[in-house]
Amino acid sequence: MRILVFQHVAVEHPGIFRTFWTEARHDWRAVELDAGEAIPTLDGFDLLVVMGGPMDVWQEKTYPWLVREKAAIRHWVRDLGRPYFGVCLGHQLLAAALGGKVGLMGRPEVGLARVDLTPEGQDDPLFKGFAEGFETFQWHGAEVTRLPEGARILAGNSACPAQAIRFGPHAYGLQFHTEIEASAVGEWEQIPEYRESLEKAIGAKEAARLGATIAPKMAAFNAAAGLLNDNLCGIVAKAAQRQSA
Questions:
Q1: Does 160 participate in catalysis according to the annotation?
Q2: Boundaries of every domain in the chain
Q3: What is the pTM of this model?
Q4: Is-catalytic flag, 88?
Q5: CA-based diameter of the chain, in Å?
Q6: How many CA atoms lie within 13 A of 14 on its CB side?
Q7: Strands 164-167 and 171-174, how do they pair?
Q8: In the annotation, is 8 catalytic?
Q9: Which end of the chain, N or C, is less surrounded by CB atoms within 10 Å?
Q10: Tell me: domain 2-244, CATH 3.40.50.2000, correct?
C-alpha cells in the first residue's frame, strides 16, 4: 500500500501508525506543508492521511497553502473516490473541503474524554471491534459545526458532537487522537497555541501533570490504534479491489 501523509507541524506525525506501516512494509511519504513542501501528483497513492496542526481551516491568509491542501483533499475524495483518513485538523479539513463548516469551541477539549459511537458508527467497518463507548485523547479548540452534505456522524460526545465522521464509502475524519505515542504531550505542549488551549481547558496545574496522567493509558491507546489501523487497511484493500474490478 502507498500512503501519502499531509503534515502541518513536524511533531504531529502519524505516531504509532508509522510503526504499523513499517512492519507491514507499506510505502508511506510525508509532505510537510507548513515547511513549504509541495503536494505531489496524487496518482499511485492508495490512502491519503491528513494530520493535525495548530492552525485553523479558515486561516488561509496566514497559511495560503491551506487553499491548495483543501483542493487536493476535495479532488482526492470527490473526484478520485479514494480512502481518506484525517485526524484533528485533518478531520476538520475534510469537512471544510467538502462544503461543511468548522468553528471555534466555547472551551477547548484537551485531555482524556469518552466518545460514544452512533448506531451508524457501531456498524461501520472502521470501528469493528470497538466498544460502543471508549476513552480517547483530545487536544482541539475547533470543531465541525456543520457536516458536508451526505456525511454521517459515527461518534460524538457532549463537548463535540462530531467526533468521527464518514463521507461516502471510505473518507473518514476523527477529531480525537488515536496515533499518539508517549512523547506526544511533551512535544505538543512546546507549541504556543497548544499550550494556551491546554491551560485554558484544564488549568496550569493539571496541564503540568497531563503526561503522567496519560502514561498508564498508553497500552490501551496503542492497542486501539492497532485495531483501527487493521480496520483502515482492510477498507483500503477493499476499495482497491473495487477500483480494479
A1: no
A2: 2-244
A3: 0.97
A4: yes
A5: 57
A6: 23
A7: antiparallel
A8: no
A9: C
A10: no
